[in-house]
């Protein structure tokens, strides 16, 4: 009856065939088989008891992963950027100063976000192929006495890991909150929120947790919580931690509606946490360290060089490796996907055109996966020699 009113005809949305590649870039990573199953669990309505029970499980699991006793732990609906934006918008007021320790693209994103909130964003930039010394960070902290310092623990654009231990104490000496991105490091590398004095932290699911993207856990220290409770500015409604704390029942007395959470993502995150809790963090860290050490040994046997000169600065979950002169990074990546269905990434931001990025993490942190990736890379370098050199 209404058909004559349609000005846009229905498109033909055909079925598509897609052969899933082995995901060994800096993320997303493959998901645990149990997580793939969890994604098909029933829909939970926003106010049913079972949803709130699942949220309680997630909060307990995330406290373990972040190693925090804090109550203000929950998950944001959105990918890792949502966690970044939630920390910045809740903890730093317009006109306050935020110092951004910058060595890769995630810090540049934080800088950009801070500027959009009217925050006085100050970037302290170092070369992309190393991490910061605590001494140089203290020099910047004493110079600016910022409301917050933003720093990335594991940087997937450069393949570097930053020492966080000791930084919380330094920040607090200058009245600064310490905000840390652990999107690509959590579970793959040791992290201790409370012991290291971290005030705000976020992570994402699609890296070493081996879950689907779209949900980002955050946690706040007592210091951060005090700032949130006494702040004069309003963050965006969707990111408001005061409101979300009620939905997530952070204080044990509220089970309320803020927005409709995605049941597949909630179930999936809960299942990722079950996997990590079953394995335990120390074993997950040891597995990642051993598998990556094996990967590095094989890359060295191929006479390839690491982009990051100091082994202590190299991130366990993402390795940046330099190809001999004459190879085109993108061509190598394309060959590996086409011939072997193995997906690794070329460099990004400061490392574009300078390295490959190989992600060995989560369910893919195994010797078998390393062999598959390195064998595919060996074949690519052999096959492409003539055309590229
Ligand atoms: C270290 C780091 N931080 C933040 C992000 C952004 O996360 P998302 O793409 O899930 O928004 C990424 C994504 O690769 C990342 O590796």
From TrEMBL:
SUPFAM superfamilies: PLP-dependent transferases. It is an enzyme of class 2 (transferase). Residues 52-348 form the Aminotransferase class V domain. GO terms for cellular component: peroxisome. GO terms for molecular function: alanine-glyoxylate transaminase activity; L-serine-pyruvate transaminase activity. Its cofactor is pyridoxal 5'-phosphate. The modification N6-(pyridoxal phosphate)lysine is found at residue 207. It catalyses: glyoxylate + L-alanine = glycine + pyruvate. The keyword Glycoprotein does not apply. Keywords: Aminotransferase, Pyridoxal phosphate, Transferase. One of its GO terms (biological process) is glycine biosynthetic process, by transamination of glyoxylate. Its EC number is 2.6.1.44. Substrate binds at residue 357. Belongs to the class-V pyridoxal-phosphate-dependent aminotransferase family. This is Alanine--glyoxylate aminotransferase. It comes from Parnassius mnemosyne.
């Amino acid at each position: 009856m209404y058909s004559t009113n349609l000005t846009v005809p229905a498109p033909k949305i055909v079925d598509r065939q897609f052969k899933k590649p082995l995901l060994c870039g800096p993320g997303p990573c493959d998901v645990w088989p149990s997580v793939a199953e969890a994604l098909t669990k029933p829909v939970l309505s926003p106010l049913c008891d079972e949803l709130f029970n699942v949220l309680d499980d997630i909060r307990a699991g995330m406290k373990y992963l972040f190693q925090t006793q804090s109550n203000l732990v929950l998950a944001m609906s959105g990918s890792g950027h949502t966690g970044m934006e939630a920390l910045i918008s809740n903890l730093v007021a317009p006109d306050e100063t935020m110092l951004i320790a910058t060595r890769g693209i995630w810090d540049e994103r934080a800088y950009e976000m801070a500027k959009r909130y009217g925050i006085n964003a100050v970037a302290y930039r170092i070369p992309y192929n190393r991490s910061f010394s605590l001494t140089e960070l203290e020099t910047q902290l004493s110079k600016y006495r910022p409301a917050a310092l933003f720093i990335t623990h594991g940087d997937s654009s450069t393949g570097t890991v930053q020492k966080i231990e000791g930084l919380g104490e330094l920040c607090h000496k200058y009245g600064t909150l310490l905000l840390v991105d652990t999107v690509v490091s959590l579970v793959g590398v040791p992290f201790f929120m409370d012991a290291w004095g971290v005030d705000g932290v976020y992570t994402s699911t699609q890296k070493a947790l081996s879950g689907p993207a779209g949900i980002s856990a955050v946690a706040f220290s007592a210091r951060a919580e005090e700032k949130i409770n006494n702040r004069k500015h309003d963050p965006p409604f969707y990111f408001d931690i005061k409101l979300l704390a009620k939905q997530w029942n952070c204080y044990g007395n509220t089970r309320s509606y803020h927005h409709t959470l995605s049941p597949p993502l909630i179930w999936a995150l809960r299942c990722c946490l079950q996997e990590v809790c079953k394995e335990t963090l120390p074993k997950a860290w040891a597995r990642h360290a051993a598998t990556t050490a094996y990967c590095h040994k094989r890359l060295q046997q191929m006479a390839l060089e690491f982009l990051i000169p100091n082994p202590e600065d190299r991130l366990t979950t993402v390795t940046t490796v330099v190809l001999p002169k004459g190879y085109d990074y993108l061509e190598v990546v394309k060959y590996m996907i086409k011939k072997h269905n193995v997906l690794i990434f070329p460099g990004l931001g400061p490392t574009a055109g300078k390295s490959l990025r190989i992600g060995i993490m989560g369910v893919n942190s195994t010797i078998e996966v390393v062999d598959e990736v390195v064998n595919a890379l060996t074949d690519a370098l052999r096959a492409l020699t003539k055309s590229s050199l």
